Amino acid sequence: MINTDVLIVGAGPTGLFCVHQLGIIGLKCEVVDNLDKIGGQCIELYPDKPIYDIPAIPECTGEELTNNLIEQIKPFKTNFHLNERVQEVKKEKNYWIVKTNKTKEFKASSIIIAGGVGSFEPRKFLVNECEKFEGKEIFYSIKDKNVFKNKTISIFGGGDSALDWAIELSENSKIHLIHRRDEFRGAESSVTKVKELSKQGKIEIFTKYQLNTVEGDKKIESISIKHDDGSIKKIQTNYVLGFFGLIMKLGPIANWGLNLDKKYIPVNTENFETNQKGIFAIGDISIYPGKLKLILSGFHEGALAARGCFKYARPDEKLRFEFTTTSKSVQSRLGINKND
Ligand SMILES: Cc1cc2nc3c(=O)[nH]c(=O)nc-3n(C[C@H](O)[C@H](O)[C@H](O)COP(=O)(O)OP(=O)(O)OC[C@H]3O[C@@H](n4cnc5c(N)ncnc54)[C@H](O)[C@@H]3O)c2cc1C
To answer: Ligand 1 pocket: which residues have CB below 6 Å?
Structure first.
């Protein structure tokens, strides 16, 4: 049994910054994530893509943001339990007992759920042969865009991810953009750009088409796509990318006795506590009037939830408000030596 002040479910940007906010007020935490790496959506879905709305950072990629968040919490030497899904949560006296699917157990006075969209999985192609090429020539997210340099790539989907990657990869590769409808759903500026690139011959657009078959033995050699009218086209391709969005499943979180609003957890905006005392929810998974599903909102929510945990971890102490700039105790927790 691992004892801690707070158990954080989810190592996305929100959970990571929350480690910092708990650390500077002197609370210890452990973090569990069912992915094999730290960073949540930023690292799983768009590590190479630039983000432009993190305060005071004009531009950084999903991976850079994750690395900076990890750097910022180094002083707290937090344990991360990756590849572990938090499965069971139950109350025992003043503590929460939390179990993972790998039978790890934690005892904590509070839980902060920073579970994003829950356990998320990409929506996949329905064509049977796709499974055998998945992770080799068929992908649902991009980890290293260099793999696709100077190749022929067939991108399926009509939303932002499909359009953004079609635009970006067209710089060095031949792109087929295939969508089952006539209209694209992505941002207007991206749709305009894709159409411009199509006129320049950099992107070939196929609308009202869906994947029909995949041909190849060890490697994909070609695919065939089927039009709404039943006609079939064969396309030579090296890689196939599918961007159909995510299937968002709350997973085990749905069974923890929390009020739910569809797949979100309602919280109060004073400290982001749920209907269960001592369980807080922050980031994409939380819902309240005016909620903005942005990383910056998750940072704010984590700051308040961390302070909400203090009364459960230190019931006999009063939490003092302090600035990091001037507080000696905060600076000592951050390992900052004034004489350096
Ligand atoms: C393509 C794309 C571009 C984006 N661009 C921007 C942008 O420019 N600006 C911006 O502010 N936002 C952007 N976002 C949104 C942003 O990524 C999310 O708001 C942010 O990741 C939410 O952070 P989070 O920590 O709440 O959740 P997540 O990043 O989703 O992390 C949650 C983590 O919890 C884990 N988890 C869930 N359930 C369990 C469980 N039971 N046990 C263990 N672990 C669990 C998951 O594995 C996951 O790693 C973008 C999103 C996408 C998809």
So the answer is: 9-15, 32-35, 40-42, 45-46, 51, 53, 85-86, 114-119, 161, 251-253, 283-284, 293-296, 298
Ligand 1 atom 22, closest CA: 284
Give the C-alpha separation, 100 to 327, whole Å: 37
Pocket probe for ligand 1: among 84, 113, 295, the residue whose CB has the most ligand atoms within 8 Å is 295
pTM of the model: 0.73
DSSP calls for 28-50 = -EEEEESSSSSSHHHHHT-TTSE
The ligand 1 atom nearest the CA atom of 296: 11
Probe residue for ligand 1, chosen from 18, 41, 46, 89 as the CB with the greatest number of ligand atoms within 8 Å: 41
Between the alpha carbon of residue 170 and those of residues 149, 186, 233, the distances in Å are: 9, 17, 21
Q: Whose CA is nearest to atom 41 of ligand 1?
A: 86
Closest ligand 1 atom number to CA of residue 100 = 42
Can you tell me which atom of ligand 1 is nearest the CA of 33? Answer: 44
Give the total residue count for the chain: 340
Question: pLDDT (tens digit, 0 to 9) for every residue of the chain, 340 residues total?
Answer: 999 999 999 999 999 999 999 999 999 999 999 888 899 999 988 898 999 999 999 999 999 999 999 999 999 999 999 988 898 999 999 999 999 988 899 999 999 999 998 766 678 999 989 999 998 999 988 878 999 999 999 999 999 999 999 999 999 999 999 999 999 998 899 999 999 999 999 999 999 999 999 999 899 999 999 999 999 999 999 999 999 987 766 778 888 999 999 889 999 999 999 999 999 999 999 999 999 999 999 999 999 999 999 999 999 999 999 999 999 999 999 999 765 5
Q: What is the DSSP letter of 74?
A: G
Counting from 1 in the atom list of ligand 1, the atom nearest the Cα of 298 is 26
Residue 335 to residues 6, 76, 146, 195, Cα–Cα distance (Å) = 21, 9, 39, 53
Nearest 5°: the CA angle 262, 263, 267 is: 90
